[in-house]
Design goal:
It contains 10 helices and 2 strands. Helix 3 crosses helix 10 and helix 5 crosses helix 6.
Length: about 160
């Protein structure tokens, strides 16, 4: 049976923010960490990121020094030129993209630097690591635009 995201999942996520927050604050860390790998895998089997790409369209990852070195080398650019062309410093002092959607996102929702993408992109949406519990405001924000996070949080609520 094919999984279908609820049509208005973003609205449902907004309505469930308080529940998610309460759950994450009270969750048994060890129990959640045991459940995450399977829920993460299940979510990625059921939800196609290429149909969404909200993370690339609406937000920017942090570009850390190793990311900048690797990507500028790939693009055959000097690091300073890469930063000047694509990045800006945000309010936290992190390098992020100057524009949205991400300049490396194609019309087909494929990433032109996928194999060399920033570590934040590689790790996103953090549904298989303890970030989901350690950085609860980030998890809640991510659940508002990422159907994978929504799916995992809904599944965790059902388990509770």
């Amino acid at each position: 049976m094919d999984y279908q995201l609820p049509i208005h999942w973003e609205k449902k996520s907004a309505e469930h923010q308080k529940q998610y927050k309460n759950y994450l604050q009270r969750a048994d860390k060890n129990k959640v960490l045991k459940l995450l790998p399977d829920l993460h895998e299940e979510a990625f089997e059921k939800i196609d990121c290429l149909k969404c790409a909200n993370c690339c369209k609406k937000f920017s990852p942090r570009f850390k020094t190793p990311d900048i070195k690797r990507i500028s080398r790939l693009l055959k650019m000097k690091e300073g030129d890469f930063i000047e062309t694509y990045l800006r410093l945000d309010e936290d002092g992190d390098y992020v993209t100057q524009s949205h959607p991400c300049p490396f996102l194609g019309e087909d929702n494929f990433c032109s630097i996928y194999d060399n993408r920033p570590s934040d992109c590689h790790r996103f949406p953090y549904t298989d690591e303890d970030v989901i519990l350690k950085r609860q405001p980030l998890t809640l924000k991510n659940s508002s635009f990422c159907p994978i996070v929504y799916y995992v949080l809904e599944a965790l609520l059902k388990e509770a």
